[in-house]
């Protein structure tokens, strides 16, 4: 139906790249639904341009931040306050029904049948299965619900500092009221579950329809060698299933990078991590135990504290033309190697 849509969110260029891969994966699996990306004003113009080529609608929204550092600290994810922005998805009232998907999800099979479900349908969270995970959910846009959600935020806040806490508080009968609102786990298979219950993954993982790269390290934090079709940085391999990670990278590298290259010309960013030095010389990574891109960032800018620098990079605010230019990164790496 023309009035049904998949919706995602990206407040910065890193998550925007995730959104691009998600959009492509939905298209590659022949969805008949519309594709909508909600973005923050921070997303750069070239990225917005690429998003407009993949999505039917790209809408700039105000970034809502819970500012709830205490609860976010419990998840060790200070960055997730902005996930309140997700609530804007209820304002898309020109659609009668939507499926929201995090920008760190990847579709591996057609999932249009999700539109047969009702609000609020979602899969259990692997950490606390009586809560639903808010990385994939079916909902009905409505200004009334949007208003009530904002009211809920003001009155009760969020127990995790992010949208998932709010949504589970608001739709609090999900766990018990109606089993048809429990999506099978294969619609939101998080990499975490693979390692917490490996036999189940072996038994059912082949049926996965949506993979969710939940957690601090996202696919775009890895390095990739497009010629060898290999992921670099073995330090992280344990956190995400290598096959799904490769699926993400091969789609990003073959279909998204060329679009970014068209926009950015010769800038190193256009290929994400692809054109950074091959994985075997990403030595700084093992030093900081962080993601490789942050490691480059840490190595590059002594004026800012490591944390500030890392945050900026992770928020997609790298200075690609200046300090963070490819030449500078290369110089720094050469220095390390000497
Ligand atoms: N998000 C965003 N910018 C941010 C953090 C999050 O746009 O700085 C959006 C994005 O769609 C992301 C979702 O909010 O997928 C939820 O965050 P994340 O996936 O990082 O949380 P996790 O699934 O790891 O708990
Ligand atoms: C979760 C969900 C994510 C949500 C975050 C903050 O782990 O995967 O979608 O944004 O918690 O509530
Ligand atoms: Mn996510």
Given the structure, what is the number of helices? 12
Mean pLDDT: 82
Helix content: 25-40%
What's the CATH first level of the largest domain?
Alpha Beta
Number of domains: 3
Spatial shape:
globular
- Going by helix content, strand content and strand pairing, the class is alpha/beta
Spatial strand arrangement across the major sheet: 3-2-1-4-7-6
Please give the radius of gyration in angstroms.
20 Å
Element pattern in H and E: EHEHEHEEEEHHEHHEEEHHHHH
- Distinct small molecules bound, one entry per kind: uridine-5'-diphosphate, alpha-D-glucopyranose, manganese (II) ion
CATH superfamily of the largest domain: Spore Coat Polysaccharide Biosynthesis Protein SpsA, Chain A
Q: What name does CATH use for the topology of the largest domain?
A: Spore Coat Polysaccharide Biosynthesis Protein SpsA, Chain A
How many angstroms separate the termini? 60 Å
Write a structural description.
Helix content is 37%, strand content 14%. By secondary structure, the protein is an alpha/beta fold. It has three domains: 4-190, Spore Coat Polysaccharide Biosynthesis Protein SpsA, Chain A (Alpha-Beta Complex), CATH 3.90.550.10; 216-297, no CATH class; 306-337, no CATH class. The strands form three sheets. A six-stranded mixed beta sheet has the order 3-2-1-4-7-6, with helices on both faces. A hairpin with a 7-residue loop joins strand 6 and strand 7 (132-139). The longest helix is centred in the last third of the chain and has 23 residues, at 242-264. The radius of gyration is 20 Å and the shape is globular. It starts with a strand and ends with a helix. It binds uridine-5'-diphosphate, alpha-D-glucopyranose (GLC) and manganese (II) ion. The site of manganese (II) ion (MN) has 5 residues, from loops.
